[in-house]
Write a structure and sequence with these properties.
Strand order of the largest sheet: 2-1-3-4
Largest sheet: 4 strands, parallel
CATH class: Alpha Beta
Strand content: 5-15%
CATH superfamily: Rhodanese-like domain
Order of helices and strands: HEHEHEHEH
Helix content: 40-55%
Number of strands: 4
Radius of gyration: 14 Å
CATH architecture: 3-Layer(aba) Sandwich
Structural class: alpha/beta
Distance between the termini: 16 Å
Shape: globular
């Protein structure tokens, strides 16, 4: 088993920390902004698929502005834009899954 040095392997350390965080019982809502076709190929169990184009229209139902959200896409690019849009719409507890699905599936 490889030893991870958080001072040197920051990206790996963050990925491990994110996986551990999402594995606990009281988890945030994971918002997957992939297209329906992409969503069929990439899956985080329990994630809600709210495609990026739907969020572009500010259609965020059934999300609540007081819940903790983690936004994910394939690489992180769309998730970053979606997270910014959610914050602009009044969601205050929004983060991004670093590296997207590419990093999640390793």
């Amino acid at each position: 088993m490889a030893v991870v040095d958080p001072r040197r392997d920051v990206d790996v350390y963050l990925e491990i920390a994110q996986r551990a965080y999402l594995a606990v019982a009281d988890t945030p809502t994971v918002i997957d902004v992939l297209t329906p076709a992409e969503y069929a190929d990439y899956l985080i169990e329990g994630a809600e698929n709210l495609p990026f184009d739907r969020l572009m229209l500010h259609n965020t139902e059934p999300l609540s502005k007081d819940e903790e959200l983690v936004v994910v896409c394939l690489s992180g690019f769309r998730a970053g834009i979606a997270a910014s849009m959610l914050r602009a719409d009044g969601y205050t507890r929004v983060s991004i899954l670093g590296g997207g699905m590419t990093a999640w599936q390793g």
